[in-house]
Amino acid sequence: MDAKHRHELKTNELADWLAHAPDYLKRNASTIIGIALILIGLITWPMFSRMRQQREIAKAASITEMIQSLEADVYRVLQAADQEEGGSVEEASNALLVSANALLDQADQTGNPDLEALAQIKAAQALRTELHLRPGLIDVEEVHSRIEQARQAYEKALAAATTPTLKAMATLGLGLCAEELGQRDQAAEIYQQLIDAPEFAATLFPAKARQRLAALNENLETFAFAPAPAAAADEDFLMPNNMSNDMFQADPGSVFQTPPSLDSLTPAMPDLGADAVSLPTAESEPDSEPN
Question: Has this prediction a pTM greater than 0.85?
C-alpha cells in the first residue's frame, strides 16, 4: 500500500469520526462534563489552596502586629501614669482603647483559634488596664460596660482556645472581672475551679488563682485589737498640772477598742453603689504568652 492510499484511508476515517462526533458527544455528554470538571478541579484546587493559605498567613501576621501595637500602647499608658502627667495619660488611654477595640473587631477573623483566643485576652487586658490607670472619677455605668466588654472577650477566648495555657488565662481573666465588680463569691468560685482543674496543673495560673483567692479570704477576716493598757496611778513620771490620767485612757470609740468594719478591710475595688468611682490599680493577670 502506497503512501497516497494510506493517506486516503486516514482521511476517510477522520471524516467518518467527525460525522459521528455530534451523536457521540450527545450520548456521553454527562461523562465528558464530569471528567472535565474533575480535571479542572485537580488543576485549580492547589492554586486556590495556596491562595487561601497566603490569606490566612497575612491575616495572622496582621493580628500579631496589632497585638504587639496594643502592648506598646499599654506600656505608654503605664509610663505616662508613672510620670503623673494627666494629659499624657488621657491621650495614651484613648489610643489604647482604639487599639483594643480594633483588635476585638478583627480577632475572630484569623482562622486560627489559638491566635483568636490570644487576641481576645490581650484586648480584654487592655480594656481593664485603661480603667485602672485613667485619672479622675469614672462613672459606674462605664465601669459596668467596660468590665462586661472584657468579660465577653474572655468568654470568647475560653471557647476558642485549644491549649490549657490560653484556657487558664481566659479563666483567670473571668475571675478578675468578677472581683473588680465586687462579685466576690463568683470570683472565688472561678478561682477555685482554676485551681482544681487537672488540665491547668502544668500552667502558672493555678498559683495566681491561689493568690487572688487568699486575698479574697483575707479581706473577709475580722480583726480585733487589744485595748490599750490603763495608766497606773503610781507611775514614776510627773503628769502636767493641767492633765489627768483620764486623758490618756483609750477612747471607747477608737478603732483600737472597736474592730474595724468590713469595708475598711476591703481592697480598693470599683464602688458600684456610688454615682462615680475612682478605680485604683489592681493586680491583673500576667501578660505571659503561651509557648
Answer: no
